[in-house]
Amino acid sequence: MLNETNLQGLFVPLITPFDTEERLDLESFGRYFSSLLQYDIQGIVLNGTTGESPTVAWEEVGTLYKAARACLRPRRLPIIVGCGTNCTAESVRRSEAAGHWGADAVLAVTPYYSRPSEEGIIEHFRRIASVGIPVVAYEVPSRTGVALSVETMQRILDLDGVIGLKDASGGLALAAGLLPDCPKPILCGEDALLLDMLHLGAAGGMLASANVETASFLKVCAQVSEGNTSHAVETFDRLLPLIRLLFRESNPAPLKWLLARQGLLASGTLRCPMGPVSTAMQAELDAFLT
Ligand SMILES: O=C(O)C1=N[C@H](C(=O)O)C[C@H](O)C1
């Protein structure tokens, strides 16, 4: 199980491979995930944004969880399962199920679309946390349409059972406001801000780009924790063009296309309404591979 102490380092949010008919492709999943496991990452996230959670059925998440555990055996790498929806009761049901499967924590996104009050949002997290499986709160206003204040996020982090935050707020203000007094880990969820957030005291990152150049992302984390700032800046500067490319069109389309071109996925297919990257982007990603 993850907790406030061991939620640190590099967590890689996995993509969900589909075949050209948009069906789950477990063969590609095994190949791609096994290749990622050559790196000493601290954990993975299933059914995050990168895993296309809006179009993956909950039963399929269960199938992916089993497939991931089977690939991992006998290693016991922490698995965080994306269980957050904009329905509190459904998020609670999913968290209960993930707890039964043996997940190490759940990722619960700020409830989107219905624009609840801040009190309603806190109650949402309180009910998920009361399930008893550790909760990582996930703040991503560019996707949810709700930006939480430092004070509200602090109240969410104060809840028993909430072990930390994945901060994809799009800037440094939330992390800077929370970190001086926050006893719980904050992980960067905004790939281009990894280095800045680590310097502010973030405990690590949950980064889609770390599916590629995983070793370099691990190196940045290690260099910052060793106080080796100039080398961390150099390593991160080399990663920035890739990060910018992967987010120029909606994540995870560029990432899936790249993983397919690397031969790790049979197809870079996304489920509708997400679709393939533009041909211009394909050419740029190709250039990255050469
Ligand atoms: O998989 C996730 O969850 C992530 N979400 C962010 C996003 O796409 O908004 C980016 C982050 O790298 C991983």
From TrEMBL:
It is an enzyme of class 4 (lyase). Transmembrane segments: none annotated. Its EC number is 4.3.3.7. The active site is at Y138 (proton donor/acceptor), K166 (schiff-base intermediate with substrate). It is found in: Cytoplasm. It catalyses: L-aspartate 4-semialdehyde + pyruvate = (2S,4S)-4-hydroxy-2,3,4,5-tetrahydrodipicolinate + H2O + H(+). SUPFAM superfamilies: Aldolase. Pyruvate binds at T50. Homotetramer; dimer of dimers. Catalyzes the condensation of (S)-aspartate-beta-semialdehyde [(S)-ASA] and pyruvate to 4-hydroxy-tetrahydrodipicolinate (HTPA). This is 4-hydroxy-tetrahydrodipicolinate synthase. The gene is dapA.
